[in-house]
Each structure stands twice: as C-alpha cells, then as structure tokens.
C-alpha cells in the first residue's frame, strides 16, 4: 500500500508522474475509417464538413436569382416586328421607347391577317388610330404596345382604339 501524500497509486506499474496512463483509451475507429472486419461503414459526415458546401450552394443560388431578376427587370423589345398601314405621329412617338421593325400593309384586314399568322406581333392602323395585337406571338407586345400607344395618344390629344 502506498503512503498518504506521496502521490503513488496502488498500481505498482504506474509511476506518479504518468498522468496520461489514467485516461481511458479511445473507443472509436481509427482515423482512416472503419475497423477492419467490422460491418459498419465510415462515420457520418460532421457538420463542419457540411457548412462549406451549404455556403457554396447559397452563393450560387444568390448569383442565379440576381441574374434572373436583373434580366427581367426592364424588359424592352428590340426590333419588334410591327405592322402599319400608313405613317403616323403616334408610331413615331412609340418608336422613342421601343425599337420597331416596321412592315407596311395596305389596310387593316391585311395587317390583321399577318398578325393572325404571327408574322408580326401587332400593328397600328393609322386611318382609325387602332392598335392590333397578336397575343399569341409575343409575351411583351400585348402589355407594352397598347400602353405606349395610349401614352402617345394622350400626349397628342387623340383617341385610340384597340382591336
């Protein structure tokens, strides 16, 4: 038996200065993975390994959303195929806001036939101040073009019809 105060333990194989021997041995698998011969797979991933992956996914999602929103922010048609029956100050005013690829037609019937075949996204009949829209041809034209013509007609004190 050891004397009190000398720090010795009842185990004669351990010295008083060896404190690491009093800790229990680790019970988990070695650092390389599963213990050979065991049926268990590798340990599940830790949260620390998951965080960088989640941060990368968050950054990528933010970039994609920003790109999508900025592309849809100010949709403006360029070289919009648009029919006219004659020259008009309303069409000239609309061209200050949107780029039009003008196609000349003899009358409203010919313009409506071309819009029905989706050759043009719509048109303007100058003789009757009528806006014709081919709704199936474009996502932008049905909302944007009548509004632009209405704004131009209001500024010039003219009445506008929609067809």
The radius of gyration is 40 Å
Number of strands: 5
Return the structural class: alpha/beta
Largest sheet: 5 strands, mixed
Provide a count of the helices.
4
Low-confidence stretches: none
Helical content class: 25-40%
- How would you sum up the global shape? elongated
The secondary-structure element order is HEHEHEEHE
Average of the residue pLDDT scores:
79
Measure the end-to-end span: 110 Å
| % residues in beta strands | 5-15%
Order of the strands making up the biggest sheet: 2-1-3-4-5
Describe the structure.
Helix content is 36%, strand content 12%. With 163 residues, it is an alpha/beta fold. The chain has a 5-stranded mixed beta sheet, sandwiched between helices. The model has no long low-confidence stretch (mean pLDDT 79).
Furnish the topology, listing elements before pairings:
Layout: H1 47-73, E1 80-84, H2 89-94, E2 100-104, H3 108-116, E3 122-125, E4 130-133, H4 141-156, E5 161-162
Parallel strand pairs: 1-2, 1-3, 4-5
Antiparallel strand pairs: 3-4
